[in-house]
């Protein structure tokens, strides 16, 4: 039946209860009305879905005055519940059917907020209901609410049949909302031969299955068939093809970027249940629902038998650190999950969109978004914690910000650390001077202890701070007084891996001791100056070393001299240039101008500017075969190649180890549990190595050192790499 102009005007807004009441009042009582798809056209496809299931609980939402329910009732389907939010039409339908169809149920109810228990129905029959809610001006909000309700009240294995004109905005919603865990088929409804309808009706059937499973859509819409609106049919066919490509990608094992809505729909299964080792990438937030959008990764800890501090936490990664291997790689992210002590961790990555946002605003914006990702945990009552990559600094005083064409922006700062776990073991606060490379924000390239300058300060270096001090940040507190009275303490090792480098010299302790006894100087080359901490420590600790530092960036020498007390003399020099070329050019030179049998030490302590790689130290070309061969020639008959290695990717580490083994006969590793650095010691021969008497060698080295270093303790971690 066609609508009159008066009736059409009454329905300018298909989502308004008042408009529908007005519409049904104008139409009067006792007459059925079908917007499209009359019973003769839909009877056969509909009954094929209900064949032999007369006892099925059927729900007809947005029933209006359609004759659909009475047709089904008269065919033996008695358990039919009809709902509509118009009291006028429900009252009219009750008067018409109460006596002749007494088992038919009618309810005044909003189909977007139905008062039925979960899983109440076996079959939901929608004929134009969704189309009415999906007015383009209204958007998808009401349609989504309705479909959420329909899915909620449908039993597992139940069917949802939707008769629709399949306009693009309606079809897009249906395809996405029933993408995960639903088996979907679609077919076109045949038109009456005499019909001159401008639109084609389609029937979509969705069967409720297992959450997270993705099925391709079974389409009975044939591109070669004749439809009343070919343009409409072709648009549907094209949309189905695109949707099936999306569904195939979900089944291909590719790491898909999900939306929050996808996860709410069950894309990765039940979010309330933790699945050990589950990792999924997603986008949080969308225009209109949040201030910002965020890229995030949801990760369920691999070992759920551990004791967790949090059942679920949020870890925010600042833009400046997002490309670091620890946060950018899957392997690194699992390390973050482990250290966060959370059964489920949601890592959120900030980018340029959040540059001007206050972190408290970001947390407030994220809070409602991450709530849907929280697993069910009855005992947990505390709000979900927010964590953030931080350096634990309590107080910071920036001394200088400089930019180098080679290294990029750098910061020199004095800091006081936060008191960790209420540790009061150090009564006097200590201040540290740090050099930070901003190209990898958070990377403290060098750290030096500041001490008060005193004219009568006769330093007993054996009682000064040792490398062990660097392992207890909890003892780092501020130093009061004028900074003019402070100087860098070069007997302090700010990095535990520097301590490992010193301890590893035990491997050639006898050669070092013999050189010291004979008054010979041991040629030591360090590639990478940094703030000068390591060469200054070695210079004071082992005075008989002849140290040459190779540094590519001239500005590093200026910074080290001005802020970190670095100074040169006859036994400590700096060569400005490329470290790889320097070693290549000096591969055949004789140390100290003497015979090539003398022991040599080559230390590579350079960080990489490529933070997306698993190899953070050294740059990749320092572990290429060409450089390693040059290093072997440089060391000649003996000595040590020492490499500071930061390879958080196990595959990259194994590659480096394999290359070193191929060039050097002897390879050792020293790695401390609390540090990501691993120090490798390679030698072309056993000539100077103390392999069989490491305990004695460690004692011998300790006796030579002018500063206190816990050699014996560190050397217990030395391993030979076969």
Automatic annotation (TrEMBL):
Keyword Transmembrane: no
Keyword check for Transferase: yes
Any GO BP annotation: methylation
Residues covered by the Methyltransferase type domain: 61-162
The organism's place on the tree of life at top rank: Eukaryota
UniProt-annotated stretches for the region Disordered: 454-482
The entry's keywords: Methyltransferase, Multifunctional enzyme, Transferase
GO MF: S-adenosylmethionine-dependent methyltransferase activity
Recorded family membership: Belongs to the methyltransferase superfamily.
Protein name: Methyltransferase type 11 domain-containing protein
Organism whose genome encodes this protein: Triticum aestivum (Wheat)
